[in-house]
Structures are given as structure tokens and as C-alpha cells.
């Protein structure tokens, strides 16, 4: 009898279509479709004209004094406060720990999803601490390393296929240097900024469109594996540089070529 019950349970679970995905099991609804499924959502055309972009509302990448010129009203996204790039906590709390595993979060973004562009007269809020997609500013960030760059800008770079490196201002300096060095030598299309909303447990994050990797300790293998798999996959994959450069410290340098055809070329001997 017991054997039958167990069998029945297994059949029921089976018929609900449990999806095996990485190490996670999920038997609820997928949004918009399971990772191996076909996206049935209607596709929206990306036709655009001079003043208007059908897919985003406001056209992107064009300075417009009445909307976004990457110079006016920037305080709506960031008060230019030093606290956003300064460590005020006990740095010991942020020490890297090998036993704390990295967390890779995948957000299944429908292929028909088009992020909205909002002008600088409207604020943009995010429900997540480390968003991987969402409404953003029409002008994106010039590629490179920043003293501070607000998320309303770097989310736009994600859409173009960039890798964004976030580190807590209190994170271990050697680890920060190591992570910056890896990212800078992997691809041109990167953005680096401190981010004080990361936790002491995992003060590092790599973000691409729909993916984020939060880490306590920098593992070269894990970082390169993530970049090789998820860089250059944004829905509007383009190498065109951004327009916003407030607090830009160093521009990105070309690694293989402007298209990043060869990701992380210096690390080819590392086994994944
Ligand atoms: C261009 O966008 C404007 C603003 O939405 C719209 O009124 C106009 O019809 C569009 N023109 C074309 C040729 O699609
Ligand atoms: C903000 O500015 C844009 C462009 O000038 C305009 O279309 C939009 O309606 C404005 N939004 C608000 C809330 O005023
Ligand atoms: C700046 O830091 C403050 C205090 O931690 C935080 O509330 C705010 O959201 C940060 N601003 C940005 C743009 O990250
Ligand atoms: C994105 O564009 C780059 C060239 O700029 C190309 O090498 C890469 O394969 C593209 N990725 C996708 C997913 O189309």
C-alpha cells in the first residue's frame, strides 16, 4: 500500500511537469516560459522615428534638453553624495569567505519585453536591490569605471549587452582590485561602480541582462564562466558607446576588439 502511494505521488509530480533547471526544481508557472520552452509572447516591432521610439516611448541615445541630456537634473537619480562610494562600516564585516557560495539569480525576461525610457522629470524606482532589467534613462553610460554611477543608467547598458561590476565601498580592497582586473581584461563593454546596497555577506555582484551573480569571495573561474556565458546577450546588443559620463574615472579599453569577439582572451587556459 505504502509502495503504491509513493508511486502515485511520483506520477502526479511527473504529470505536473517538474522542470529540472540547474540545481533548482520548480513546478509552478514560468514567466514567460520555461528556460527550455518556446516564448509564445507576441513580438513587438522596434520601429522608431526621430522623436519617438515605439518600443521604449522616448528615443534612446539622443541628447534632448527637454528629456535627458545626461547633464540636467541628474540629482533625481543620485544626490551626488559621498556616502554612496565611501565606507562607513566596519570593513571586517565584509571580509571574503570561501565557505559562502556565490548566488546566481536568473530572471526570465520575456523576449517581447521592452524597457520604458523615462525622462529626467520623472523618478524611477526599482523593487529589487540589484535589478537586472527595468525602466531606465534614454542615455546610457559611457563604458568604463566610475566613482559612482546610478542604476538608472547602468541598467540601460545591461540592455546593450554590458557586464556591470558592483562592489560595496567597504569590500576588501585586494578583492576589488582582482575583480576589476578580471572584468577589464575580459571585455570592453563593462561598467564598474561601487554600490552600497550590497550586503556584507556578498559585497560583490556581476550583472548582465536577466542575470546576477552575488559573491563573497572572487573566484576567477566563476567570474570568467559568468562573463563568457552571459555577456553580450542583452536584447539590444550594440557596442555604441553611451553619453553619460558624470564621475567617470577611466574609460574602458578595447580588449580583443570593439565587438568583444573574444571574451577574456588572457584566461584561455583556465578550465571551467
Ligand atoms: C513618430 O512618433 C510620433 C510620436 O509618437 C508619432 O506621433 C508619429 O506618428 C510617428 N511617425 C511615424 C512616421 O511613425
Ligand atoms: C516629462 O517630460 C517628457 C518630455 O518632455 C513629457 O513627455 C512627460 O509627459 C513629462 N512627464 C511629466 C510627469 O511631467
Ligand atoms: C546612496 O546611499 C544611501 C544611503 O545608503 C541610499 O539610501 C541611496 O539609495 C544611495 N543612492 C544611490 C543612488 O544608490
Ligand atoms: C552581440 O554583438 C557582438 C558584436 O558586437 C557579437 O559578437 C555577439 O555575438 C552578439 N551577441 C548576440 C547574442 O547576438
**Rg from alpha-carbon coordinates:** 21 Å
Ligands (ions, cofactors included)? 2-acetamido-2-deoxy-beta-D-glucopyranose
**Unreliable sequence segments:** 1-24, 41-51
* Strands, count: 11
- Dominant shape: globular
Our count of helices gives 4
Distance between the termini: 47 Å
Helix content: 10-25%
Strand arrangement within the widest β-sheet reads 5-10-9-7-8-6-11
Topology as a string of helices (H) and strands (E) = HEEEEEEHEHEEEHE
* Secondary-structure-derived class: alpha+beta
Beta content comes to: 15-25%
Biggest sheet details: 7 strands, mixed
Describe the structure.
The chain has helices at residues 2-15, 151-159, 173-186, 220-230; strands spanning 19-21, 24-26, 52-53, 57-58, 103-106, 144-146, 163-167, 190-194, 204-208, 211-215, 248-251. By secondary structure, the protein is α+β, with helices and mostly antiparallel strands. The strands form three sheets. Strands 5-10-9-7-8-6-11 form a seven-stranded mixed sheet. α3 (173-186) runs parallel beside α4 (220-230). Residues 1-24 and 41-51 have low confidence and may be disordered. One 2-acetamido-2-deoxy-beta-D-glucopyranose is lined by residues 161, 232-233, 237, 239, 259, 261.
Amino acid at each position: 500500500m505504502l509502495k503504491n502511494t509513493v508511486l502515485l505521488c511520483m506520477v502526479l509530480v511527473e504529470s505536473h511537469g517538474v522542470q529540472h533547471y540547474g540545481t533548482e526544481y520548480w513546478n509552478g508557472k514560468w514567466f514567460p516560459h520555461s528556460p527550455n520552452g518556446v516564448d509564445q509572447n507576441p513580438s513587438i516591432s522596434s520601429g522608431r522615428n526621430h522623436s519617438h521610439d515605439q518600443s521604449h516611448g522616448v528615443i534612446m541615445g539622443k541628447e534632448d534638453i527637454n528629456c535627458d541630456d545626461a547633464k540636467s537634473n541628474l540629482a533625481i537619480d543620485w544626490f551626488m553624495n559621498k556616502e554612496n562610494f565611501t565606507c562607513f562600516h566596519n570593513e571586517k564585516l565584509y571580509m571574503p569567505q570561501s565557505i559562502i557560495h556565490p548566488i546566481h539569480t536568473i530572471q526570465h525576461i520575456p523576449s517581447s519585453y521592452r524597457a520604458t525610457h523615462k525622462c529626467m522629470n520623472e523618478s524611477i524606482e526599482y523593487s529589487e536591490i540589484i535589478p537586472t532589467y527595468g525602466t531606465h534613462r534614454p542615455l546610457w553610460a559611457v563604458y568604463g569605471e566610475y566613482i559612482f554611477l546610478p542604476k538608472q543608467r547602468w541598467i540601460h547598458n545591461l540592455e546593450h549587452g554590458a557586464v556591470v561590476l558592483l562592489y560595496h565601498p567597504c569590500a576588501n580592497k585586494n578583492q576589488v582590485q582582482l575583480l576589476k582586473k578580471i572584468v577589464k581584461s575580459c571585455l570592453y563593454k563593462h561598467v564598474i561602480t561601487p554600490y552600497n546596497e550590497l550586503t556584507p555577506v556578498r559585497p560583490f555582484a556581476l550583472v548582465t541582462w536577466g542575470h546576477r551573480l552575488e559573491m563573497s569571495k572572487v573566484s576567477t573561474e566563476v567570474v570568467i564562466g559568468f562573463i563568457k556565458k552571459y555577456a553580450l546577450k542583452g536584447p539590444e546588443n550594440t557596442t555604441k558607446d553611451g553619453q553619460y559620463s558624470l564621475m567617470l574615472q577611466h574609460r574602458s579599453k578595447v580588449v580583443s576588439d570593439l565587438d568583444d569577439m573574444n571574451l577574456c582572451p588572457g584566461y584561455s587556459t583556465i578550465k571551467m
